[in-house]
Amino acid sequence: MRFFAEFFECFWIAGDAVRANKLRAALTTLGIIIGIVTVTLMATAIDGLNRAFLQSISALGADVLYATRIDWMIDSHEQWMKVSRRRVIDMEQVREVERQMKLAEAVAPFVETGAAVRFGNHRSDNVAVIGTTDQFRITSGMTMASGRFFSTEESSGGRPVCVVGWQVATNLFVTEEPVGQRIKVGGNTFDVVGVAEKQGEFLGAFSLDNQVFIPVRQFTTGFWRDPDFQINVKVGNPRKIEEARYELRGLLRKVRHVAPGAEDDFAIEQQETIIKTFNRVGGIIASIGLFITGLSLFVGGIGIMNIMFVSVAERTKEIGIRKAIGAKRRSILLQFLLEAALICLIGGVIGLAIAWPLTLLLGRFMPAVMSLTVVGLALGISAFTGVIAGFLPAWRAAKLDPVDALRAE
User: Within this chain, do residues 251 and 144 fall inside the same structural domain, yes or no?
Assistant: First the structure.
């Protein structure tokens, strides 16, 4: 209880000192304000990008494996030249994986090209045309806004049916109900059996709603005769994802006739691969950005330190009087530490008030939201900067001899 009483007493004394020197305190906080604005904007941008990334990457599914010829993450031109010479994954290999994979809930081929899609006088360009099977609905976790996904019979029979993405349906069908209509995909005619639920964008790079899904046999007949497939494997038990990964690797080595001891001529990717890479790259960018913006806080802290030294020099006699009537060193130390922290906190609050509208403006161009975590971080950094910057002046004040302090003019 005594410590809290002492703390509040020092706090009020520090507050009175700040109020008594409003102009000096305001000028001193400029460096802190600039530092907090830059740090806050950087933190909100990084936090917003992380949220958008995790939301986008969730479309891949944490329990889905993706077998591809080309690795998702390539570090050099030499690696690209090496993997580009690998043999394609053909439909026969897809069928073997589907037939022999024991830990899979569903296996679906995936191949993509681009084409224009037309309905009457309406046209949608650069649409991703995806060839797959009925199992894709399970591996992707797709939900339908209306209609249905094509059936096993339609898939295996290569019927001219399709499922359109939300954006395609919006572009082509203004007043008509999409399901049951006949559209042109490239030069081929398809009956629309379903419309996929709106999914948004993937990593901000392309729309997941600007897609048309057709049976893979229709794809190989009308678009690409011998495509390079990706195999999507949804694992029945998410806890067995690594076990399923080893099983899939063994199957692919067998069906692709990879010699014992030879390097894999394929890649098995999953959501975790992209997350780890993003976190590594994002961590480097965040460290560099926060270091650069932290320099302004350092400059602001130097300004606080100088002003606090001046304040100690001006109030030497006051310090002597407080010590003469029984104030301890810790009280003097705490008083000046609180004064420095209070000045920085005021700068932090002003900085947040400036950063708030700037964050709203930034949010129009990129995902940026000022969360409570960012606000708390900014205020915490402000107070910490004040304590660090004010420690040496406060320590000097605490060590003053009361007799010498009372003699000061």
Answer: yes
CA angle 363, 368, 372 (to 5 degrees): 125
**Phi and psi of 102, rounded to 5°?**
-95, -30
Cα gap 1→11, rounded to integer Å: 15
pLDDT digits (tens, 9 = 90+) for 306-332: 877 777 777 777 767 776 776 677 777
Answering whether pTM is above 0.70, one says no
Q: Per DSSP, which regions of 87-160 are E strands?
A: 104-119, 122-132, 144-147
Q: Give the whole-angstrom CA distance, residue 223 versus residue 215.
A: 12
Q: Note whether residue 63 is domain-resident.
A: no
Contact 42, 361 (CB under 8 A): no
> Which residue segment(s) compose the domain that 92 sits in?
87-265
In a 13 Å sphere around the CA of 48, the CA atoms on its Cβ side amount to 18
Distance CA 88, CA 118 (A): 31
Please choose, from the candidates 385, 394, 399, the residue with its C-alpha nearest in 3D space to the C-alpha of residue 337. Answer: 394
In a domain, 78, yes or no: no
**Last-in-domain residue among 210, 233, 265:** 265
Domain count, the chain: 2
Residues facing 66 on adjacent strands: 232, 269
Rg value, the chain, Cα: 32
pLDDT digits (tens, 9 = 90+) for 293-306: 777 778 778 888 88
Regarding whether 304 and 247 lie in a shared domain, the answer is: no
- Same domain (yes/no): 146, 43: no
**Which residues have a Cβ under 8 Å from the Cβ of 175 and sit 6 or more positions away?**
none
Q: Does residue 75 sit within a domain? A: no
